[in-house]
Amino acid sequence: MTERRRLRVRGTVQGVGFRPFVYRTAVELGLAGSVWNDSEGVLVDAEGPADRLDELARRLGEDAPPLAAVWSVEATPLAPAGKGGGTAGFAIVDSRADAAPAVAVSVDAATCTDCLAELHDPDDRRFGYPFVNCTNCGPRYTIIRSIPYDRAATTMAGFAMCAACRAEYEDPADRRFHAEPNACPACGPHLRYLTPDGSVRAERADALEQAVADLLAGRILGVKGLGGWHLAVDATDTAAVAELRRRKARDDKPFAVMVPDLAAAARLCRLSAAAEEALASPRRPIVLAPRATGSPVAAGVAPGLPELGLLLPYTPLHDLLLCRVGRPLVMTSGNRSDEPIAHEDADAVDRLGPMVDALLGHDRPIHIRCDDSVVRSLPRGPGRKSTVQMVRRSRGYAPEPLALPVPATRQILAVGAELKNSVAVAKGAGVVASHHIGDLEHLPAYRSFLQAVDHLCHLAGVVPEVVAHDLHPEYLSTKFALDLDLPAVGVQHHHAHIASCLVDHGRDQRVLGVAFDGTGFGCDKSLWGGEFLVAGLDGFERVGHLAPVPLPGGAAAIREPWRMGMVWAGAAGGRAEAERFGAASDDRWEAVLALAGADRTPRTTSAGRLFDAVAALLGIRSRVTYEGQAAIELEALASSVPPGEAPHYMLQVPEPAAPAPGGGGGVPVPIVLDPAPLVARILAERDRGTPVAVVAAGFHNGLGLAVADLACRLASARGLGTVALSGGVFQNARLTAVVAAAVEEAGLEVLVHRRVPPNDGGISIGQAAVAAATSAATG
Ligand SMILES: [Zn+2]
Ligand SMILES: [Zn+2]
Ligand SMILES: [Zn+2]
Question: How far, in Å, CA of 431 to CA of 427, rounded?
Fold first, then answer.
């Protein structure tokens, strides 16, 4: 019995070889019909026996090409056209001119196994060619200048395909059918080896030879990647790594290490199944994982940290380099300390020239700067599957859309926060976040922000009707948003964090959200950062927070954790305790203490600053050279104590007031959780000579269990069954594990970030989701 059906496929299904995949599958199943792209994804019109049509729908969902992400396949019946199956034929139809896709471009993807095989096959015409790619792999987002996505719109426009490449490109049965960056040694880009001042010294295979010789000799090399330049050096060479650190003016921030394959990765780090899967995936993020004992990597790669950031080669050039050098290589972003990564060749010579001994570049331009993404391997709880958490969502993930729990009825631009900025656009069922842009206080990052807003709107075909922004009036992103002539939706920072966690899990519901971070602008104009919110996408209520304390010196208080140490010493042990710690820490302590007591000094409930304070009080770190360093080192020490052996420093939780009967009684006052008694215990243990790691572990347990206890009580008082954990502090795996286990123990569900960063990199996604939900509610 012949039937005809229309299949609507939604998700990331364009520019990823989906139409040829449908074609092959349909032909294999003997179905007639056609497939084409439209603005919502891919449409298939198929005719044949019902069981074959069922099979087609199933395979489209389950066997999709590696770069595709299928959200749904919906079938609707059509009247049969009487073509029958078999030889009547199946066709790939050109996209209609009016069919602006949801997102025109897919993510950059690591070299696939088929292309790698060609790269290493002496008989293949692409043997040793560092730009081999196909429909299943290669550059996308970073080379596209405009839409529609075809070669002329990419940075490959200057390379005309040779006859052999053209034949592959035009053959629907070929792996390179419509692979826009398709190239070979006869027609494509080539390597260049440059001196630090930019003069070309070698090309093609000779360029590779020279670069390999440099790396083996411990020299520092600039290497052009997909989304920008890296600085590369032999990771096992202590002197070379120290020299790189000196030239880059990067005191302690860890470097990522590239290794040739999973086996080499497993020699450097202890890898969970999820960590291995992430490392080897076509997205190829940097994976943070615990170091294996006896790893040959120089200590200077990640000073004082028990974890290493590993990644596998993701371009054919990386693969050739790693194979030839045969050692792990530092691959850190090509910039000086906090500047954005260099991506244009002239800029690379200007900025990287003074730092490198040579540059290995090529003549395929990078259009969009895109840093490596970072995920962190989370320790496995009892009975739990291993998982990874997004820390920086950039290359390999941007611009893949995420599903919005509440679709956007108007087109939205969300401009994100100030630090770790990303921007996002939303229309219909999807939200598309940009690559990692960086800290907007740096002018080059702000320029990158402006470019990203334009480019993302263009690629996603979004003409913003609403702009969502943070409430902080001094954020450059906020100022930008308010200067646009558009209706603006101000989204409170911690509400955006919780909303981003809801998007991560595809939820539209109310939860008890715990948002712990550095600081964010509160509705009362104070600096929030240790918040308990009853929140849904369409609104929130602040039902609890950490006790507020002074933040003496704004940004200086972030760079110098001893300042918060002194504040918390005072809160826990009185003025004498603050003076004792201040005097032992810094010459300026009296002025800072006076500042802490002044009326004009802002107050904060920041959990991040509490972690800084404890790290300072324990003598771990009184000054930081990168954001979060003190808290990261505190966590590292705590994690050196097995969970079963860690003490629990009890912190009493106040009882939430029962909701007023009948709903009267005005706005309830938020509950205050005061960590001072916990800090007092830490001071006592320190003075008693308890090992610092044990005290750090006791602090994590004490705070984590108190947070879980309060969250569960607040949730139960409102009849909520789910607790969501968000904010940069929940990148702390030890704290997250303690809180999550206790919430689950209490019988509630816990949502932890996986795909969206818990830090401010996820704020734009949360803002977009809130704007979508509130615009939907108000029409
Ligand atoms: Zn390939
Ligand atoms: Zn060619
Ligand atoms: Zn934040």
Answer: 7
CB-CB neighbours of 40 under 10 Å = 16
- Collect all residues with Cβ–Cβ distance below 8 Å to 514 and sequence separation of at least 6: 531, 532, 533, 707, 711, 723, 724, 725, 726, 727, 730, 739
Q: Give the model confidence (pLDDT) of 453-482 as tens digits.
A: 999 999 888 999 999 999 999 999 999 999
**Ligand nearest to the CA of residue 116, numbered in listed order:** 1
For residue 549, the CA-to-ligand 1 centroid distance in Å is 55
Q: pLDDT-based confidence at 738, cuts 50/70/90?
A: very high
Q: Which residues surround ligand 1, an ion (CB under 5 A)?
A: 112, 115, 134, 136-137
* Cα-Cα end-to-end distance for the chain: 46
| 655, two tokens | 């009882």
Averaged pLDDT for residues 562-570: 98
- DSSP letters along 378-434, please? EPP-TT---EEEEEE--TTTTT--EEEEEEEEEEEEE---STTB--EEEEEEEEEE-
Mean pLDDT across 114-130:
98
Residue 59 is predicted with a pLDDT of 94
CA of 302 to the centre of ligand 3 (A): 25
Strand segments (E) across 13-169: 32-38, 41-49, 69-78, 90-92
How far does the centroid of ligand 3 lie from the alpha carbon of residue 519, in Å? 6
pLDDT digits (tens, 9 = 90+) for 436-451: 999 998 888 999 999 9
SS3 at position 496 = helix
Ligand having the closest approach to the CA of 66: 1
pLDDT for residue 259 is more than 80: yes
Cα of 759 vs centre of ligand 3, distance in Å, is: 6
pLDDT score, position 743: 97
Structure confidence at residue 20 (pLDDT):
87
Q: Which ligand is nearest to the CA of 156?
A: 2
Rg (the chain; Cα; Å): 27
Could you give the CA distance from residue 392 to residue 266 in angstroms, rounded to a whole number? 23
Measured distance CA(149)–CA(367) in Å, rounded: 14
Q: What b/e readout covers 727-742, taking b as 16+ CB neighbours within 10 angstroms?
A: bbbbbbbbbbbbbbbb
Judged by its nearest atom, the ligand closest to the C-alpha of residue 497 is 3
The contacts of residue 158 (CB under 8 Å, 6+ apart) are: none
Per-residue pLDDT at 228 exceeds 60: yes
Q: For residue 223, report the distance from its CA to the centre of ligand 2, in Å.
A: 24
What share of the chain in percent tops pLDDT 90? 78
**399 Cα: distance to centroid of ligand 2 (angstroms):** 28
More confident residue, 658 or 262: 262
Return d(Cα 402, Cα 413) in angstroms, integer.
15
Map 52-96 to HEC letters: HHHHHHHHHHHCCCCCCEEEEEEEEEECCCCCCCHHHCEEECCCC
What is the spatial distance between Cα 194 and Cα 551, in angstroms, rounded to a whole number? 49
Best CA proximity match to 513, nearest among 528, 525, 527, 530: 530
What local confidence, expressed as pLDDT, does residue 83 receive?
A: 55
pLDDT tens-digit series, residues 359-388: 999 999 999 889 999 999 887 665 678 899
Q: What are phi and psi of 433, to 5 degrees?
A: -100, 150
> How far is ligand 1, taken at its centre, from the CA of residue 20, in Å?
15
Amino acid 86: pLDDT:
44
What's the number of CA atoms in the CB half-sphere (13 Å) around residue 734? 26
